[in-house]
Amino acid sequence: MPAEGDEIVVTAQLRNQGTQDADVFTVQWVLDDQPPAVLPHGPLLAQQRSQESSSRRKFKLSAGLHRVTFTADPENKLPDANRQNGVFSKQIEVRAGRTLRIGDFRTIDQLDPLRNATPGPAAVLRLLFRGLARLDPESGVPTPDLAAGWEIRPTNGSARCLIRLQEGAYWHDGTALTLDDVKFTYERVLSDAASPWHELANQWISDVRIVNRAEATLALGLKADSAGLLPVALPPQLLTLTIVPQRVYAADPAGFGQRPIGSGPFQLADFTPDQAIQLRAFAQFNQGKPRLDAIAIQCAVASEGLLQQLREQQITAALLPYSPALAAELSANSVWATKPLGEPPTLLDVTTGTIHERFPNAFDSNWNAHLWYV
Question: For the segment 110-120, what is each residue's pLDDT rounded down to a tens digit?
Answer without folding.
Answer: 999 999 988 99
